[in-house]
Amino acid sequence: MYNCAIILAAGEGKRMKSSTPKILHKVCGREMVNIVIDVIKKAEINDINVIIGRGADAVKEATKEREVTYSLQDKQLGTGHAVMCAREFLDGKKGTVAIFTGDAPLITEETVKKLLSFHEEGNYKATILTSIVDSPSGYGRVIREKGEEVLKIVEHKDCTEDELKVNEINAGMYCFDIENLLKSLDKLDNNNAQREYYLTDVIGILKSNGEKVGALPIPFEETMGVNSRVQLAEAEKVMRKRINLNHMENGVTLIDSENTYIEIDVEINNDTVIYPSNVIQGKTIIGEGCIIYPNSRIKDSIIGKNVSIQSSTILESTVGENTTVGPFAYIRPESVIGKSARIGDFVEIKKSTIGDNTKVSHLTYIGDAEIGTGCNFGCGTVVVNYDGKDKHKTIIGNNAFIGCNTNLVAPVEVKEDAYIAAGSTITEEVPKGALAIGRAKQVNKVGWVEKKGLNK
Ligand code: UD1
Ligand code: CA
């Protein structure tokens, strides 16, 4: 059986009060519309058409890696009108079209598959997903005949008092027989409270033509739509719970899973322990056996195994195995930290490579530098990488010892095994194995205090 899908994503999203189109708001780090596309693809529907309108270019840009096609809905005249705009996409196709909304990101692959097989096995011309809820306010109500059969869907604003009491809602996700859908769309009108062409009216039209309509109730947790920031936070919470559950099932310990924020794309290996208040984002991969103490943010980074991280920020960087980071370290993009290294408190690393076993333990800034293996940085070292106009490079050889409070004025090179005396300002190359002292010599003026009459 041929299957394709349409995602409605042209709407205004007024209730979000945002300059960003609603369906580009993110849930656990991924745009809602992309979450929906990914779920549909996982359910093996690959011919996907996205209806765009509001913020069309932004939506195209955000979805461009996902190989979908687009139909433009110039004016948002309702969900039925939106599907009419996909006529070109549907014309000549025979089979089933599944329709989803870009603002309901909690649907799962299993449910999409279930919907398809339910629709096919029941020989329905249309099948709707529904949910039974305590407070149906705002949703379209599913009106059934005395027996079982679905008769029609009535939008909240068009409901009679009796219909408002119905607590089975339309999830806004459907399967249609393509030819029957196209014929029914021609019959839609906008004689309703919102003066819109409702896709939901197609159900009543099919029914009055004597066609078979199916309904599949599923938990509200999967059908919840996002129309406001409050609902966005609710969706985020459900998604977060699913993500965290999945990590725990894979052998990751989350000390307090309700307060651990891991985005959709993150991968974490087993026996890693994550304390609360951590934010792990983007395409981050964390190796096995790591410990991440509270209050870290890690984004688009690769963390090796057995790494310990405490109250630190790591962005677009790599950290080698057995290294410790923090507390209060800041590793900025394009940095590569080696194995068994130490990046200690109040250390900032920017666009630099730090070799294996190198220790940068406290109060240090390293920018645009290549640091060898086995080096030791004393407290308060500053790589002076910026001359007010350009950034310059600093190169430190293996096993160099940088004394406390050193300035390394780039461009500069310190060769391997060299020592730098504390308090030095290094402006010239330090040869291999040399000791560099770049500071004024100490002078003691004996008896000076007494001579000045300053004794206490
Ligand atoms: C819709 C359903 C309602 C259902 C609810 C489930 C209709 C008439 N109503 O209501 O029965 O309970 O979803 O969440 O279908 N859109 C367009 N073009 C438009 C209008 C909307 O592309 O002209 C898109 C929106 O971007 C959104 C989706 O369609 O992704 C749903 O639109 P929305 O206005 O949120 O519909 P609801 O009022 O929630
Ligand atoms: Ca909606």
From TrEMBL:
Residues annotated as transmembrane: none
Amino-acid positions noted as binding acetyl-CoA in the UniProt annotation, renumbered to this chain: 385-386, 422, 439
Domain Nucleotidyl transferase: 5-213
Matches recorded under SUPFAM superfamilies: Nucleotide-diphospho-sugar transferases, Trimeric LpxA-like enzymes
Residues annotated as catalytic: 362
Chain positions covered by the region annotation Linker: 230-250
Binding site for Mg(2+): 103, 227
Region (Pyrophosphorylase): 1-229
Main localization, broad class: cytoplasm
Key word Phosphoprotein present: no
Chain spans, region N-acetyltransferase: 251-456
Pathway(s): Nucleotide-sugar biosynthesis; UDP-N-acetyl-alpha-D-glucosamine biosynthesis; UDP-N-acetyl-alpha-D-glucosamine from N-acetyl-alpha-D-glucosamine 1-phosphate: step 1/1; Nucleotide-sugar biosynthesis; UDP-N-acetyl-alpha-D-glucosamine biosynthesis; N-acetyl-alpha-D-glucosamine 1-phosphate from alpha-D-glucosamine 6-phosphate (route II): step 2/2; Bacterial outer membrane biogenesis; LPS lipid A biosynthesis
Family indicated by similarity: In the N-terminal section; belongs to the N-acetylglucosamine-1-phosphate uridyltransferase family. In the C-terminal section; belongs to the transferase hexapeptide repeat family.
Known partners and oligomeric status: Homotrimer.
Function: Catalyzes the last two sequential reactions in the de novo biosynthetic pathway for UDP-N-acetylglucosamine (UDP-GlcNAc). The C-terminal domain catalyzes the transfer of acetyl group from acetyl coenzyme A to glucosamine-1-phosphate (GlcN-1-P) to produce N-acetylglucosamine-1-phosphate (GlcNAc-1-P), which is converted into UDP-GlcNAc by the transfer of uridine 5-monophosphate (from uridine 5-triphosphate), a reaction catalyzed by the N-terminal domain.
Stated name of the protein: Bifunctional protein GlmU
Species assigned in the record: Clostridium magnum DSM 2767
